Amino acid sequence: MATKECPSCAMEIDKKEQACPICGYEFPPQKSSLIWVALLMLILFSYPLIRLVLSLF
Ligand SMILES: [Zn+2]
What we know:
Helix content: 40-55%
Bound molecules: zinc ion
Strand order of the largest sheet: 1-2
Number of helices: 1
Number of domains: 1
Shape: rod-shaped
Structural class: mainly alpha
Number of strands: 2
């Protein structure tokens, strides 16, 4: 099981926990989901460009 350390009480807790079950410290939202949203946006915006470039040949 992957764990992370609570910065408030220094306890090892489940990595999937959004808040510390011991002291109630709330962890900031994961940045990985933001990266996926950014990637999706990049694909959506680049797709018409790719189609345009392909249509030129
Ligand atoms: Zn804690």
